[in-house]
Structure formats: structure tokens, C-alpha cells
Amino acid sequence: MRRPQRIEPGPDQESVWDYPRPPAVEAVAKRVVVRLGGVVVADTTDAVRVLETSHPPVYYLPVADLAEGALVPAEGSSMCEFKGRARYFDVRGGGVVAPRAAWNYPSPEPGYEQLRDRVAIYPSAMDSCEVGGEVVQAQEGDFYGGWITSDIVGPFKGGAGTFGW
């Protein structure tokens, strides 16, 4: 399968095709807010994002900045060739439960230690996720859990027919 054409970023934009592989971890200077069931389940100014070629950034929030009881351990795990073994969580807020809507790396591989004690959340499973006051769009397909903001351009891996990129 042929890789699609990179969209040229405009002023103050970045292309996911300029992100590295293996992925990089970068601090986020903006406030990140996540809502579920009409309530705030996460609010932080201490997020990091993982940047990987062809993927919208995945935001990782400190577990300590999630509302009490928002994370409930869920069944199953998965393996990332770079970050290690992930465990999953249901996310609860306002009487709503989003099954397996969050994950983390309790013992991340070298180079990804910043992810320890942080959790990533699928934006498609939440009422909303915001970065710097902007409501994000969920990455199509949900396999990677990327957060798309107006300063990110693709095309993005994740949707039907893109796994061979």
C-alpha cells in the first residue's frame, strides 16, 4: 500500500509525518481537561504527549490529576514495541462508565519513564477532551487514541485502510 501525501503544515501547525519513530515524549504547556458524564474527570497543566510518525499525539495525564474514583482497573493488556506492556482502565464520571477507555504503562521501557504514573484516554469515549481550551477530535479507528487539534495536520494513520502505511 502506498503511503499518502503529507499535508504541508501552515503557520503554527505541525505535520504528524515529521514526528519521529521511535516515538518522542514531549511536555505540554497547555491545560488539558477531560469530561465524562457531564463532569470533569481530569484537569492538569502537567500533561505529556507522545509523538509518533503518522499518528496524532497521544496525551498522557498524571494519575494524580484525575478525579477520585475516575479510574477502575479493567481486564486485559497490550504490548507496545517501544513503551512496553500497557494495562487498561474503565473511566467513570457523572454516573457514566466508559469501558477500557484509558491505559498506562506501569513499567515503561527505557526512554519512556515519563509515562510512569500517567494515563492516556481515548477521546472518542469521553464527552470531551480539551487542550488549551480547544476541544479535540478523536483519531479515526481508536486503535492509537490520538488527539487531533487544529495545529496538527495529517493524513493520520488509524482509519480503515491505513494500517499498511
TrEMBL record:
Bilayer-crossing residues are none
Q: Which residues form the DUF427 domain?
A: 32-123
Supply the name of the protein: DUF427 domain-containing protein
